[in-house]
Amino acid sequence: MTIQELHQHFLDFKLVSTDTRKISKNSIFFALKGDNFNGNTYAKEALSKGAILAIVDEKEYANSKDVILVNNVLTTLQQLANYHRNYCSAKIISITGSNGKTTTKELIHAVLSTKYKTIATKGNLNNHIGVPLTLLSIKEDTEIAVVEMGANHKKEIAFLCSIAEPDFGYITNFGKAHLEGFGSLEGVIEGKSELYDFLTTNKKQIFLNADDPIQKEKLGNYIQKFGFSTTLSDYYKLNLLEANPFVSIQVEDTRIDSQLIGKYNFTNCCAAIIMGKYFSVLLPNIKEAIENYVPENNRSQIIEKEGCKIILDAYNANPTSMKAALENFNQIKEDNKILFLGDMFELGSSAYKEHQNIADLAEELIFKKVYLIGENFSKTKTKLSTFNSFDTLKVYLEENAVPKNTSILIKGSRGMALERILDLIQ
């Protein structure tokens, strides 16, 4: 079966499934493989639960007319997504960067949805499987699709661009994330800039933060760009009014008061604003979209509990985002501030140095109490309280309650699951 023929089947119901636990009736089931599972073995189950076709790549499972044998299921999924992307008329905006991708994507989606039929990546499904699934969620009446792209090594963004073929792109920033895969900050810059490479080669539109020297230098004299700046007159002027703790922005004669904390969210809001302006969204609608956006899923959430004001930023962490979070928390005008910081993952040989840097910064700034959690933080040379695991922290807090009427920042990599600390504040 050709990709074109498979696409004709897809158009009947426009549904795909990759997990029999969440199968959609009348969907096409793609029997993907993982480190601990073989989707081929679930093809029969998928059909019994309502799938109209199952795509497999092992001959022994192609035992009925509803099972299609291909050379590689994942490649077929990616090819179908690319075919569908070109079949539809939607414009594709791709977002990548070291920090803030998901928040920026959601803000852009909120702004553009006020005028256009817009879809966006769900959650953080931003890899070689998630991007194809996002593209396959595009409907015939979709006008704009905001596609988040993640990467932890070079050539990955380039590959995702070959599938999505974006018309527009924006890089949030270049930071010390996934150093284990990229090797260095220079490797991060090279890897993330693969989005620029695709867009410039194909003469597509780029959005940029012109105050970021790396972005400004990388794009040089490239003409098809539209950016924002707090100082440069050649770009759309946006100003940060305050971030104590919520970000407020001056846009022309309008003040936008977001529900996002930290100066680091200023540029995320700015990206959504300039895309709104580029796509002719009215400023009152941009303002309303940004002011109504409330972060969730452990991303800079504000939670009130037992008299404490808690900033829960436990979705992910790397040295760049951790430093920004600490500096922002330090500037918040509160007397009693407590830090819970969890290990940062995927740093490779840089792990000890980067954790020591964060421990030194936390010790240098003025906080009432700092708790460092995880194997890496427990190896640092510091006067701060260290715990080699969440369980040891739990035992400590059960005997030493967190004081009431304090401000608390909780930040760490996803694998640390530091949102569990909420249950210990009582």
UniProtKB/TrEMBL annotation:
<dbReference type="GO" id="GO:0009252">
    <property type="term" value="P:peptidoglycan biosynthetic process"/>
</dbReference>
<dbReference type="GO" id="GO:0008766">
    <property type="term" value="F:UDP-N-acetylmuramoylalanyl-D-glutamyl-2,6-diaminopimelate-D-alanyl-D-alanine ligase activity"/>
</dbReference>
<dbReference type="InterPro" id="IPR036565">
    <property type="entry name" value="Mur-like_cat_sf"/>
</dbReference>
<comment type="pathway">
    <text>Cell wall biogenesis; peptidoglycan biosynthesis.</text>
</comment>
<keyword id="KW-0963">Cytoplasm</keyword>
<dbReference type="InterPro" id="IPR000713">
    <property type="entry name" value="Mur_ligase_N"/>
</dbReference>
<dbReference type="InterPro" id="IPR036615">
    <property type="entry name" value="Mur_ligase_C_dom_sf"/>
</dbReference>
<keyword id="KW-0131">Cell cycle</keyword>
<comment type="similarity">
    <text>Belongs to the MurCDEF family. MurF subfamily.</text>
</comment>
<keyword id="KW-0961">Cell wall biogenesis/degradation</keyword>
<dbReference type="InterPro" id="IPR051046">
    <property type="entry name" value="MurCDEF_CellWall_CoF430Synth"/>
</dbReference>
<dbReference type="GO" id="GO:0047480">
    <property type="term" value="F:UDP-N-acetylmuramoyl-tripeptide-D-alanyl-D-alanine ligase activity"/>
</dbReference>
<dbReference type="GO" id="GO:0005737">
    <property type="term" value="C:cytoplasm"/>
</dbReference>
<keyword id="KW-0133">Cell shape</keyword>
<dbReference type="InterPro" id="IPR005863">
    <property type="entry name" value="UDP-N-AcMur_synth"/>
</dbReference>
<dbReference type="GO" id="GO:0005524">
    <property type="term" value="F:ATP binding"/>
</dbReference>
<feature type="domain" description="Mur ligase N-terminal catalytic">
    <location>
        <begin position="14"/>
        <end position="82"/>
    </location>
</feature>
<feature type="domain" description="Mur ligase central">
    <location>
        <begin position="95"/>
        <end position="275"/>
    </location>
</feature>
<keyword id="KW-0547">Nucleotide-binding</keyword>
<dbReference type="InterPro" id="IPR013221">
    <property type="entry name" value="Mur_ligase_cen"/>
</dbReference>
<dbReference type="Pfam" id="PF01225">
    <property type="entry name" value="Mur_ligase"/>
</dbReference>
<dbReference type="InterPro" id="IPR035911">
    <property type="entry name" value="MurE/MurF_N"/>
</dbReference>
<dbReference type="GO" id="GO:0008360">
    <property type="term" value="P:regulation of cell shape"/>
</dbReference>
<dbReference type="Pfam" id="PF02875">
    <property type="entry name" value="Mur_ligase_C"/>
</dbReference>
<keyword id="KW-0436">Ligase</keyword>
<dbReference type="Pfam" id="PF08245">
    <property type="entry name" value="Mur_ligase_M"/>
</dbReference>
<keyword id="KW-0573">Peptidoglycan synthesis</keyword>
<dbReference type="GO" id="GO:0071555">
    <property type="term" value="P:cell wall organization"/>
</dbReference>
<feature type="domain" description="Mur ligase C-terminal">
    <location>
        <begin position="299"/>
        <end position="384"/>
    </location>
</feature>
<protein>
    <recommendedName>
        <fullName>UDP-N-acetylmuramoyl-tripeptide--D-alanyl-D-alanine ligase</fullName>
        <ecNumber>6.3.2.10</ecNumber>
    </recommendedName>
</protein>
<dbReference type="InterPro" id="IPR004101">
    <property type="entry name" value="Mur_ligase_C"/>
</dbReference>
<dbReference type="GO" id="GO:0051301">
    <property type="term" value="P:cell division"/>
</dbReference>
<comment type="function">
    <text>Involved in cell wall formation. Catalyzes the final step in the synthesis of UDP-N-acetylmuramoyl-pentapeptide, the precursor of murein.</text>
</comment>
<keyword id="KW-0132">Cell division</keyword>
<keyword id="KW-0067">ATP-binding</keyword>
<feature type="binding site">
    <location>
        <begin position="97"/>
        <end position="103"/>
    </location>
    <ligand>
        <name>ATP</name>
    </ligand>
</feature>
